[in-house]
Specification:
CATH superfamily of the largest domain: Type I PLP-dependent aspartate aminotransferase-like (Major domain)
CATH architecture of the largest domain: 3-Layer(aba) Sandwich
CATH topology of the largest domain: Aspartate Aminotransferase, domain 2
Structural class: alpha/beta
Keywords: Aminotransferase, Pyridoxal phosphate, Transferase
Cofactor: pyridoxal 5'-phosphate
Number of helices: 11
Number of strands: 15
Organism: Streptomyces lancefieldiae
Pfam family, one: Aminotran_1_2
CATH class of the largest domain: Alpha Beta
GO molecular function, one term: transaminase activity
Length: 406
């Protein structure tokens, strides 16, 4: 991602087709709603929330609203001490990793991703070298053009150095959603290891609701993390966690000794969005339908454009903002594709960075080097033009016509 930003920034005047972007789509109705809600919070509470320090747990108005929301929507038996608000869900995941993994008096523990590929940003959460590992999935072929990752729960349950388990659901990049049954198996694994399971719902239920996904699970071992980034406010960096006090209280203390608290004006905005049902309405009537239609569009483009004589497959995604493509050919390499496409003005994200320790893969072989991620959030014309270049480039790589990267 740094290379994409640097390249685009240095090549003034050049037109780029950026299909590697991680921003949510620019949806006018979403922007208008958040602008209206933020204007209301600014007028009603600016002096109280922006001109004073606040609680490290979160703005009391928002904390109470979150409690009422999850009690009412899912029937969770929670109170304010089960909630902490932070400056983005990724920061909350980092805090959890810092608190619950690393060197210990009796043993050293690691942050474990129960299934890779998963969000590449997780791999920077550990402060200890070698402090993160991922469990490779089983790969199941589904027809000529589809495949799916399955949890290797036996390997996960057999690990001996687990301090924290963390996964995104739906996942970035593959869009795979853990079913309720799978979540229960992961909870059982967390219980067996005597560790917390952090579930990052950044793309899932109840918001932003990008694709059908299982409702979040309440359990004393689970810390559910939620974000408003993909619901339209990525720049405001606001997220919150709901979990058992034994995990939430240390996170509150960490917040108190680091950032003090998350920005409060946007907390006030979110509180009103939840109380008024404005966010739920936005998800149900705008965000969810938008991404459902966009996925159909992009997957149809790929099916029509990518060469039929190449063994490419698309992950069977239930949600998220991306398409995850596997080119099951010996000649294919994700970095070569990346560099070749960059030379042709197109960006995608190479797949290997979503896996951990690919040099010592036990069962996936070259698979982590044969995948790439395409974002569904650029405008349709950009996506269509980019897919056309990707298709032509794959054809050239197949017959050796593409120049190797310098």
């Amino acid at each position: 991602m740094d290379d994409i930003a640097t390249t685009i920034g240095s090549a003034t005047g050049k037109e780029w087709l950026n299909l590697g972007i991680g921003n949510p789509a620019s949806i006018p109705e979403v922007q208008d709603t958040w602008q209206r809600l933020t204007s209301g919070a600014l007028a009603a509470s600016f002096g109280d929330v922006s001109c004073r320090y606040g609680s490290s747990r979160g703005l009391p108005e928002l904390v109470d609203t979150i409690v009422d929301y999850f009690r009412g929507r899912y029937g969770w038996d929670v109170g304010p001490r089960n909630v902490v608000v932070g400056p983005g869900s990724q920061m909350l995941c980092f805090i959890a990793a810092a608190l619950f993994t690393g060197p210990g008096a009796s043993r050293d523990t690691r942050l474990v991703l129960p299934m890779t590929p998963d969000y590449t940003g997780y791999q920077g959460l550990s402060l200890t070298p070698g402090g993160i590992t991922g469990v490779e999935p089983h790969v199941r072929i589904q027809g000529a053009r589809s495949f799916r990752y399955l949890f290797d729960l036996a390997t996960l349950e057999g690990l001996t150095d687990v301090g924290l388990m963390l996964l995104s659901s739906p996942s970035n990049p593959a869009g795979r959603s853990a079913s309720r049954g799978e979540l229960q198996r992961l909870v059982s694994a967390a219980q067996g290891h005597d560790v917390p399971l952090v579930v990052d719902n950044a793309y899932g239920a109840p918001f932003p609701g990008i694709g059908p996904s299982a409702a979040p699970v309440w359990d004393e071992r689970v810390v559910n993390v939620f974000s408003v980034s993909k619901a339209g406010l990525p720049g405001e960096r606001l997220g919150f966690a709901v979990g058992d006090e034994q995990y939430i209280e240390p996170i509150v203390s960490f917040m108190a000794n680091s950032a003090l608290h998350a920005p409060q004006l946007v907390q006030s905005t979110l509180a009103h969005a939840l109380r008024s049902d404005a966010l739920d309405t936005l998800v149900e009537t705008v965000i969810g339908p938008f991404y459902a239609e966009r996925r159909k569009f992009v997957e149809s483009l790929l099916a029509e454009a990518l060469p039929q004589d190449i063994a490419w497959r698309l992950h069977a995604a239930e949600g998220g903002m991306f398409c995850w493509v596997w080119v099951d050919e010996e000649w294919f390499d994700d970095l070569r594709l990346y560099e070749t496409l960059k030379g042709r003005g197109v960006f995608v994200v190479p797949g290997r960075y979503f896996f951990t320790d690919i040099e010592h893969s036990r069962g996936l072989g070259r698979h982590p080097r044969q995948c790439f991620r395409i974002s569904m959030t650029p405008d349709p014309d950009t996506i269509a033009a980019g897919v056309e270049v990707i298709a032509a480039t794959l054809g050239d790589l197949c017959v050796g016509r593409a120049r190797p990267p310098r």
